[in-house]
Amino acid sequence: MSLLMQCLNIKKQYGEFNILNGVSFNINTGDKLGLVGINGAGKTTLANILSRNISCDEGSLIYHKQAMCLSYLKQTSDYDEDSLGEFRSDRRQQKAEFYKACDELNVSYLVNGKNSCHWDKLSGGEKIKLLLAKVITSKSDFLILDEPTNHLDLSGITWLIDKLSKYKGTVLVISHDRYFLDAVATKIVELDNGKAHMYQGNYSFYRDEKKKAYDSQLNAYLLQENYKNKIDSEINNLKNWSYKAHKESAAKAIAMGNKMGGKEHLRTKAKKMDNQIKSRIKRLEKIDIEGVTKPKEEKNINFSLMDSHKVTKSILSVVDLSKSYGSNIVFHKSTFYINREEKVGIYGINGCGKTTLLKILLNKETYEGKLSISKGINIGYISQDVLDLPEDKTILEYLDPKNNDEMGTIISNLYNLGFDSAAVSKKLFQLSMGEKMKIKLTMMIKNNNDVLILDEPTNHMDLHFREQLETVLENFTGTLLLVTHDRYMLERICNKLLVFEHKAIKKVDSGFKEYISRPQIKEKQEDKLTLINNELTFVISKLSTCKKDSEEYKELDTKYTELIKMKRKLSSNFT
C-alpha cells in the first residue's frame, strides 16, 4: 500500500485543555482505520483537522496524493434543513447510484421530490441513512465517518459494513459500535492522553493486545518494585550496621585512649558501609529515572442498579395493541406479555415503531387495544434524545437531593461515573452528549427502579463505558426493555425479544443470536429435506423394478425406512 497521508506531531489546545498533544501516525491508501478513545479524547477534533475543517496549533499534515478527494460525514446534529434540499437538488454524476443507495436503505421516499418532510421532522435513522447514501456514493479517495452507526438499525449497519468492505478508497471511522469496528477496521488508532497509538487489527485484536501489553508492563513493574524493596531493606540494614560501627569506633577509641590503630580500623569499616549505602541509593535513583512505570489502569465506572424486589410476576400484558398515524399503520393487533426479571431486546428496522411502543408503555402516546401494567412498579426511562434535559439547571439542581445523605450518595455516584467533585456545579448545557446520558443514568440509580426502559442508552457513550454498562445491566435483577442497535449488547444481555415485522409485534422466547440463526437453520433443514425427498423418489422407483425376495430389494427397503425416519425427524423440527 502506498502512503496517502502523514500526521506529524499534531497539537490542538482549547483554553487550558491540551486535547491533542503530539499526535503522529501514517495513513496508507486502502486503510480501514477505526479511531477510538474515551469521551473527550479528541476524536472529532482530529477528524476535523484531517478533513481541513479546522487547523492544528502545531504540527503538520503531509498529503502524498495530489488533488485528493475527501468526504467527511459529521454527526447528524451538525446538519440542518438545507441538507434535505441538497439531497433533492443534487445533479451529480453519481445521482443514480445515490438513489439506488437510498432505495437499498428504504429512504428513497425522502428524495423523490414528492415528500415535504422537514429535516428536523426526520428520525435519527432517516437522517443518517440519507447522509450515508450520499457519502458512500461520492467516489472519494478518503472517507471520514463520525459515529455513522448512531441511530442506524442492524440492517443498515449490515449494508454499511458491506459497502465499506468493498470500498477501494481509504476509510477512517469514529465509532463506539464494537461489532461494526470488528467487521470493518483493519487497524485501530487509539487516542489516549493526547497521543495516538496504532494497532494492526480490528477492535477485538486491539483490546486483546492492549490487555497483553498492560499485563506485561504490570508484571515487569511488580518485579521491579520487589527488587526496589529488596534494595531498600539492604540500605536499612547497612545503615544500622554503619551506625553501630561508628558508635563502636567512638567507644573503642575512648577505651583505647584514642590510639589510632583500633579507631581507624572501625572508621574504615563504617566508611565502607557508607559507600555501599550510597551505591544502592544511586541504583534506586536510576530505577526511578530509567525503570518501568506503573501502567495506567482504565478507570472503572463503579455503579449498580437495584430494584425494590416486588414479587409481582407479570409486569405488563398487551392485547390487540394497534397504533397508526392517519392511514399509516405502525403496528396492528399485537399481543404479548412481559414477566418480572425478563430482559427484553426490542428489535426492528428504523421507523418500525420501537420508540412509539415505549411511549405507549409510558402513557405518552395514544393507542388502540388493551394495556395492563402492574400497579405500584417504579419505571425508569432513558430516551435516546439527551436534548430533553433542562439545560439551564446545574447537575445538582437536576438530580435534586432531598437531604445530606442523598446528596452524599449522588456525589459518590457521579464520581463513580467519571465526574470530578467540581462537576456538580456545571450547567447541563456545558456537558458533552455522553456526559448528559450519564446524568440520566445517575437519576435512574437514585430512583431504584423495578423496570428499566432504555432507548439507545449507549448513543454517544465511549467503548469502555459501554462494556461496563453491559455488566451492570447483566447483573440488574429487575425487568429490562432495551432498544439498541449494538449487536454485542443485544446478544450479551437480552434473553427475550420483541420483534417488529409485517406491521406487528411478536414476542420471541430466545436471545438475539438464537433468533437470527433460526432462518438459516430452517433453510438448511429445507435443503436436507429436498435431498431426502429426491433420494426417496429414486429408492421408490428402484423398488418397483426389483423382485421382493432379492438382496437389492432388502437393501433398498432398509434404505427407504431410514429415509422416512430422517424425513419425520426433520419435519418435526420446523417451527
Automatic annotation (TrEMBL):
Q: Name one GO molecular function term.
A: ATP hydrolysis activity
**InterPro entries assigned to the protein according to its UniProt record, in alphabetical order:** AAA+_ATPase, ABC_tran_Xtn, ABC_transporter-like_ATP-bd, ABCF_ATPase, P-loop_NTPase
User: Quick check: keyword Magnesium in the entry?
Assistant: no
Instruction: Supply the alphabetized keyword list.
Output: ATP-binding, Nucleotide-binding
Gene3D superfamilies documented for this protein: P-loop containing nucleotide triphosphate hydrolases (3.40.50.300)
Tell me the PANTHER family matching this sequence: ABC TRANSPORTER ATP-BINDING SUBUNIT, DRUG RESISTANCE ABC TRANSPORTER,ATP-BINDING PROTEIN
Q: Under which name does UniProt file this protein?
A: Putative ABC transporter ATP-binding protein YheS
Q: Which organism is it from?
A: Clostridium oryzae
> Taxonomic classification, please?
Bacteria, Bacillati, Bacillota, Clostridia, Eubacteriales
**Gene that specifies this protein:** yheS_3
